[in-house]
Amino acid sequence: MNYYKWIDSNGFSLKGKTVALSGATGGIGSILCDYIAYLGANILCLDRNAEKSNALIEKLKIKYPNLSAKHITLDLEKFDNVKNVCKQLKEIDIDYLVLNAGAYKIPRYKCDTGYNNVFQINFISPYFLARELSSQIIKKGGRVVAVSSIAHNYSKIDIKDIDFSDKKASSKVYGNAKRFLTLSLFSYFNSKNVLSIVHPGITLTNITAHFPKLVFALIKYPMKVIFMSAKKASLCILYGLFDRTQTGEWIGPRLLNIWGLPRKKQLKTFTYCELICSKEISNKIYDKLTKD
Ligand SMILES: NC(=O)c1ccc[n+]([C@@H]2O[C@H](COP(=O)([O-])OP(=O)(O)OC[C@H]3O[C@@H](n4cnc5c(N)ncnc54)[C@H](OP(=O)(O)O)[C@@H]3O)[C@@H](O)[C@H]2O)c1
What is the pTM of this model? Predict the structure, then answer.
């Protein structure tokens, strides 16, 4: 499949627009950067690893000599850094914010916000960035694109254990953070016409390569055959820049949420009560973080 042809038919030029993208160095992020550069936007790569991020930018500039791209150091585990990046992005006046960075099975510890790092990387920091930058993005008619996951479905919000620190399974801890991200952004952006909740289905990247070495050696090739390529899965994230989602909708692969080209669908996995509960909790977290 020619992905650029698909982008030409389903998207639009981003010339003159500025896209800030977290996790640009990742499997999906680096492909998204290529697609976004193809569409002519300026790119801000929000990454924790400056060397990797700058190497990516250099590579992109060889393919797209007119590209304007810059690295900004963003470590989602360090909240002071997240606040600082917010300030910088407010001055740059971005059009699109793509909240793509994520982490799944990593050693867990309590971060500076008091919540565990998986919750902070996948929910608290991206949620804070989205809220802080929302008014300028709304003014510019841009989009906040938040990358969720089918793993959001592995858990329900637990008010007694907000970040799932008492739970062992990585799938649940990660899924809970993605669930918070999705539901809290639904509530916050309700009818503001600026949000795209997207997900890539399943594709082989670092985040899905979390199995023990021997197991991974055995399943790596079958996984490559069974699941979509990262190039195809990334189209579901890119499509979030072209469309938008209302509360209770998301964009992802059309077949069983795992295979195929992007399609907007109803997300029927949460209740109204859970939506309100996530809203109250995320508002409290945001208020506390803005006061600190
Ligand atoms: N692949 C899938 O099947 C799948 C399925 C569902 C959802 N997703 C979501 O898709 C998004 C992209 O994932 P991917 O598949 O491209 O995984 P990936 O290759 O592991 O990329 C993850 C990206 O997030 C960055 N990141 C991790 N921790 C960070 C931190 N503390 N601060 C700043 N950046 C951090 C990584 O930076 P480094 O390069 O420095 O490590 C990397 O750029 C994630 O949100 C993920 O949850 C992926």
Answer: 0.97
